[in-house]
Amino acid sequence: MPRGHPSRPFALMAEERESSRRGTPRSNTPQVLAQHARAAVGSYAGVLSFLVLMATCSPALGAIQLQPVLTGLSSPVYVTHAHDGTNRLFIVEQPGRILVLQPGAATATVFLDITPKVLSGGEQGLLGLAFHPNYAFNRRFFVNYTRQADGATVIAEYRSSVADPNIADTAETTILVIPQPFANHNGGMIEFGPDGFLYIGMGDGGSGNDPGNRAQNINDLLGKMLRIDIDAPGVPYSSPPDNPFVGATPGRDEIFAVGLRNPFRFSFDRGTGQLYAGDVGQGAREEIDIITLGGNYGWRVFEGTLCTNNDPGLCNPANFVPPIKEYDHSGGRCSIIGGYVYRGTRSTLPMGAYVFGDFCTGEIFQLLPATSSGAQTLLMDTSLSISSFGEDESGEIYVVDLNGTVHRLTGETGTTEVTSENNGGDGGCAIATAAYGSPLAGEVLVLRQFRDRYLLPYAPGRLLVTTYYRLSPPLARAIAASDTLRAVSRGTLLPMVWWTRLALVSPVLAILSAGGVGLGSLALGVALTRVLRRGKS
Q: pTM of the predicted model, to two decimals?
């Protein structure tokens, strides 16, 4: 994210030009250089003080509560945002509607209604929604539903209206159709990854114990995590060249990972880019997996870390990727609902905690850190039938109740924050997003992580960010429209991204490097002043 105040050096340059036109003697030049030196030292001293303040302060966490956002919904199954800077929430209803909620509004309006196309009930329905990384510019979004005719999974593309961004055009483009042999285990989640590709979570096709052994069959799309490129010219989609079975390699090109039972909800950690999936178990274990390219997660050979005896000769744990965490069905638990790694701006939860829940008990859990060594703790025991979690643009986490409500996780003692009306969230890094072509680009993720960690929790940082959000959109639009400006912007952002990476890894080294540049600027200013003075004498 660009920092600093450009008007200062531009003012000095204008002063120099005006002095030259008036014929100001050269004796004033050292004063101008001294002004440069003092400005540089002052700027870096301010940066150092600010970074020290940020590095030594950490906000306190309050007790976790559920804040009502919407009620009266019809079987809601998902909530998300469009990462376009508008801070709208989009709610998916299982029968076939997508609603849009404006910031600060109490009621939602219909964004898209495809109810006549959708076969809904049980585990079928309109199950997923994903906005293109460049949605703010191309209006493209994608849905996952089971169709009326035969219950097959359909991945389809729609676009928002040019005339009204809160209404979608009804024209549908079918991207992919996957036949379903049974009515359950349809998966349903779709999401764009940091690489810009569309990920699709597919269940094993249903019934029990995967009777067709589809999850281990690399020639079948069921029981897999799929990854496709929906920006390929001239075709509905293509498969990324590094997918494990692409090209001449035996297996379906679309497959990213295999051996999943029903990854109903998955998400990408917006800080690290890792893919977390809650894979719903059969009758014994629920599991959390970090999904990686080419991984085999064991189903139907293993359920979690338990051998199912469906294929007893294959029960060698070394051949499969184990879950990072699992739990049994004691206490009435039955079905994991995958959630999100917390990267929010309100300090509601510890940064980096993975939040998930169980559909049957309504319990909400936290895994901290979000690794195999993390501690699983109970955050809340609710009466909700949790169908999904979701994120808003600022990284705050929402809880969806199939019985008709959406809540936001919040702390008991609220903290000062950048509100939904002025926080740009994912869309906030507008200039970097325009320069690198996607809000999910690695460089943008780094800048956003720095913003969330070091700027938004503190009043001076929030002021800087809010000002940036207000001033940056026109420049971002100009950058996005010009290949030349994008290239220039990437070059300009390069040292900033490098320094930001350093700050995230080692704040001390970042402070020292900034101090070194400041002292170097001072030394350069002093040296130039002395040289010019000697020339005058």
A: 0.70
